[in-house]
Write a structure and sequence with these properties.
single chain, Heat Shock Protein 90, five-stranded mixed beta sheet, 13 helices
């Protein structure tokens, strides 16, 4: 089975790229341009056309915003530099420098427009695409740069305007950081949900694999034993060999039924016919139907009943023990205490642990007596399966050993016990036998 590396936890994964759709980017640029144009007109009192120099500076600070998502920090540096130049040249631009300077000194909040609109847009973009520490460092540096230049160049009556300009850059940084946090949180939640779904799918696949392993290993072990018995008896006792071959048919049929039940439990909903079949009609066979030898269609009742048959529980334990005894295994079972109804997952887990233990004993120690002890207690069921060493090994005076296996059976039994909230232990005995013990909660 291909091993899958655990996925990186969403909270430790790097922050995903945060980008909005194209139409949002276009709207953003249009809004920024409209605000900057409004600022230029507002500075002139909405009475005259803005000075050409101011328009050139505004355009120079706006154009870099088109590539802001590709180079956030360089664009911010360029925009801040242009707007610093705007602040420096603002009092001296235009045909009447003295009048422009007087307008600047007597204006209030609109004194520096369109500064710092472009810086706010660039800073918002930086906060949206960079880590919070980098964003706040860049935002504070931009705000202090613009405010410092204005504080040095302009009189004290514009101090409030200077502070407001710096605060606007800080506010843009805060908005961008908040939007980034919300977007990344949404993306991380989606990633976490996808990882959860992927883990559930993997767990379901493992559960299917365990169920199929238990079903096939159990029935194929019995089929193999019956085939060996039939081959041994065929020359001397054809009747007994025929009985053994008949048991092979029974075991294969039971394996098919178990597979249908296992797969049927995994379906989202049972498949039912959409409409009854009228007399004389023959509907082509499809999912959930069985085509008989005469090309007729058996109703879905039999197939659905088999597919949706209840999974095995401890109520089916006597039947399972008899199937092992039928192939020549000496299985002795005993129960102590009064049986109680268990949760379905615990009941199935107990059944599969016993089944896997008997299968391993029959495979690795053929002919050895097997003991199955169930001890019902107030809050748990103790299961103990013990087998002696194989008689063949003892008779041949060989060192007791067990044929090597993959170990998947023991892993599956341990997982079933732990999933049910119980305990599991298994190991070889001094005499060469083997013991499996599991404790499964009954509540």
């Amino acid at each position: 089975m291909k091993l899958m590396m655990p996925a990186r936890r969403p909270d430790t994964a790097p922050a995903p790229e945060v980008r909005g759709p194209f139409w949002q980017e276009a709207v953003f640029l249009v809004v920024v341009l409209a605000i900057m144009i409004g600022g230029l007109w507002g500075q002139s009192g909405y009475t005259t056309t803005p000075e050409a120099g101011l328009v050139v500076l505004a355009v120079a600070s706006y154009l870099p915003l088109f590539v802001r998502t590709r180079w956030p920090i360089p664009v911010l540096i360029i925009v801040v530099a242009v707007e610093v130049l705007h602040l420096i040249l603002l009092p001296v631009l235009g045909p009447d420098a003295a009048a422009s300077a007087q307008a600047v000194t007597t204006a209030s909040v609109a004194a520096f427009q369109p500064v710092p609109v472009a810086t706010m847009a660039a800073m918002y973009n930086v906060a949206l695409h960079k880590e919070p520490f980098t964003a706040w460092l860049a935002g504070l540096a931009s705000a202090l740069t613009l405010s410092g230049v204005a504080f040095v160049l302009y009189p004290a009556n514009l101090l409030a305007t200077t502070l407001i300009m710096g605060n606007l850059v800080v506010i843009a940084t805060a908005i961008g950081t908040t939007v980034r946090h919300r977007r990344t949180s949404t993306i991380r939640r989606r990633i976490a949900q996808e990882e959860h779904v992927r883990a559930q799918v993997l767990a379901e696949r493992m559960r299917i694999a365990r169920e199929l392993h238990d079903v096939l290993a159990h029935n194929l072990t019995l089929v193999n034993a019956q085939a060996g018995v039939a081959k041994f008896l065929l020359p001397t006792d054809p009747a007994a060999a025929e009985t053994a071959l008949g048991n092979i048919t029974n075991h294969t049929r039971r394996a098919i039924d178990d597979l249908r039940a296992t797969v049927g439990l995994l379906r989202e909903e049972p498949e039912t016919p959409s409409e009854p079949i009228g007399k004389g009609e023959v509907r082509p066979a499809g999912p959930g139907t069985v085509q008989d030898e005469d090309n007729g269609v058996k109703g879905m009742e039999g197939a659905t009943r088999s597919a949706l048959a209840p999974t095995h529980t401890l109520e089916h334990l006597p039947m399972m023990l008899d199937s092992f005894r039928s192939v020549g295994n000496f299985v002795h079972d005993s129960q102590y205490g009064a049986p109680v109804r268990m949760p379905q997952i615990n009941d199935l887990g107990a059944y599969r642990i016993i089944q896997e233990s008997l299968t391993n004993a029959a495979k690795h120690a053929p002919g050895a007596p097997i003991r199955v002890d169930l001890r019902w207690q107030q809050s748990s069921l103790d299961i103990t399966i013990t087998n002696d060493p194989s008689p063949t090994t003892i008779r041949d005076h060989q060192r007791p050993h067990r044929p090597l296996g993959t170990g998947h059976g023991l892993i599956g039994m341990r997982e079933r016990a732990l999933t049910a909230g119980g305990t599991f232990e298994a190991g070889a005995l001094i005499n060469g036998g083997y013991r499996v013990h599991a404790s499964i909660p009954t509540t």
